[in-house]
Amino acid sequence: MAIQSIEKVNAMWQVWQASDMLNFVEEYGKKGDADSVLLAMDKAAETSWMMNMGPTKGKILEEAFKNKRRVLEIGTFLGYSTIRLSRILPPDGRLTTIEIDETNYQAARHIVQKALGSDDRIRMLCANASAAIAQNDERLGGPFDAVLMDHWKPLYATDLQALVQNKLLRPGALVIADNVLFPGAPDLLEYLRVPYIQAQDEVSGQPCLHILSDFITAQEEPVNIWSGRVWSSKHFDTSLVPVPFEYRPETPDALSLSTYRAISNVPAWL
Hints:
By secondary structure, the chain is of the alpha/beta class. It is built from 10 helices and 10 strands. It has helices spanning 18-28, 34-47, 55-64, 80-87, 102-116, 129-134, 156-165, 180-184, 186-191, 223-226, and strands at residues 70-74, 94-99, 122-126, 144-149, 169-177, 196-200, 207-211, 231-232, 236-245, 248-260. The protein has an 8-stranded mixed beta sheet with strand order 3-2-1-4-5-10-9-8, with helices on both faces. The model is unreliable at 5-12 and 266-270 (pLDDT under 50).
C-alpha cells in the first residue's frame, strides 16, 4: 500500500500509540535514511494526529540550533525532533534527550537507531526530566548551548528556572519552547514577561492564548506586529515565531525563542 493512500483519522488529539508509529516507520522508513524515517513519521501523524513537532517547526528548529555543541531536548516522545537535532550537531557535539514514558522511550530508541544507526553523540535517557534538572543529574551532560522544551506545558517555567539556578545554561544559550500559544504555556510566558490573554481557538474550540500589546492595556496584538517583538525578563530576551500547530495548519501556534543572559540587565523587580 502506498504511503499516500492511507485513510486519515479525524482526531484533534492523539489516538494512535507508540506501536502504531513503530509499525509505520518499519513499513515506510528506510534504514540509515533519516529523511525517509521523518517522512514516514510525518505521514503517520497526518493520518492520525501524533505529537511530532512536524516539518514546519522542525525546519525552524534545525536552523536555530545549527552548530550548537551541547543540546538538551526535554520530551523525546518518539524521536522525531531527536533525529532532526542530530543532523545539525557538529562532529564534537552532544545531544541529550529525555523521555519520561518507558514505552515511548523504547520506541524512540528503535526509531532513532533506524534513522541514524549508532551515533555516540546522542544520549537518550528514560527519566523524569524535571527531577533530573532539579537535582543537576550528571547524566544530563550540561551546561548547554541550546535547549528544546517540548514536554508537559505546565512544567516549562519551573524547569527553565531550574536550568538557570543549577547553571545548566551557558551564556547566550538559546531555549526554544513549543506550543506556547496552543494549547499554551501561560506560566512560561509570565516568567518570560510576555503578556497574553486566555482565548479560544476559532477552528477547534479548544483553549489557547493570544498575545497582548502589554500587561496594562490588555489589547490584543495581531501576529504581524508581535512576531517582530522582543520581550526582556530577568534572565532572557524572548521572541515568538508564529507557526501553525503541528499537522493542523488552520490552528495558530508559536515557538518561543529565549536567549539566556548570564548577568541580568533589567531591574530586579521584573
